[in-house]
Amino acid sequence: xxxxxxxxxxxxxxxxxxxxxxxxxxxxxxxxxxxxxxxxxxxxxxxxxxxxxxxxxxxxxxxxxxxxxxxxxxxxxxxxxxxxxxxxxxxxxxxxxxxxxxxxxxxxxxxxxxxxxxx
Length: 119
Known about the structure:
Helix content is 49%, strand content 0%. The protein is an all-alpha fold. It has a domain at 18-68.
């Protein structure tokens, strides 16, 4: 029984030859094995970018470490906030009421729960 459905053909946007496709498949499998924490799609992207980029530009990226710096949209590393200054609308420093500095509300409610349990 014959069908008129065509067989699936994998996309080949860079017009690789059959030999180049076989080499690409082998190299991507090796990258996935060597770098298991990197998404396979990223391995495909970087292979295609490097393979289709002029060799001088690839060497410049490696020698200058261009791709080793955080990206333009990378999140800043976290940190600890030591001091905070708050100001009123007129620009004068805001003074926090002393009772708000005694205990955070979460601790107060925890102590209330413990008092209820004890009674």
